Amino acid sequence: MKKVLMVLTGATAWELKDGSQHPTGFWAEEFTVPDQIFREEGYDITIATPGGVVPVADELSLAPEMNGGNLEKIAEYRSYLAKSESNLAGAVALESIDPADYDIVFVPGGHGPMQDLAVNADIARIYEATLDDASKVVASLCHGPASFLPATRDGQWLFKGRRVTAFLDEEEAQAGFADKAPWLLESRLRESGAVFESGPVWGSFVVVDGNLVTGQNPASAEEAAKAVVKLAAHT
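User: That's the sequence. What structure does it adopt?
Assistant: Structure tokens below.
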């Protein structure tokens, strides 16, 4: 049985450039879709957050305008979140995680990771132990790759030269946050040395680079999760 470490943001607010606090959390689709796929595969999933706080879904991720007006899809996400309530409430502290215990590290997005995982020493510790191990799979979606930023070894960024994707600056602009964000994820990943790739705005796009899987946006959740399953089957 594959063991998955599902790392969710513990942030409920994202500090914008002007110092104001924007309500946030994890993006519903990016948790519910992969979590369901992994559980259907029989994977054993541990949910972890910084400090072991109970993670919350960003209400914006359940808004009709962020889901193409598809109310049925939103209802499905809300139903799955309700069924997952005890799993989310049982989140363990990221600080307590031994990465040797897990086969897969999966980090969904939402703006929350921009606030906490982007500066978290423990997610960096976990990546240091897993990214170079071909028997492990590391995966992240949308704003989740903000968690890549603190991962260094001997002053070198662990993801330098790796092919990745993440939420595009153009998508951030269309979502109305590019001029408010303290920094933009695509730009920061490029500046840090990632080989950044992108697909159509708001379309599903996934990059697989060795044992590293990244998805561009919420629409990429299913494709990314399936790519993880495919990789894990060969590790």
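The radius of gyration is 16 Å.
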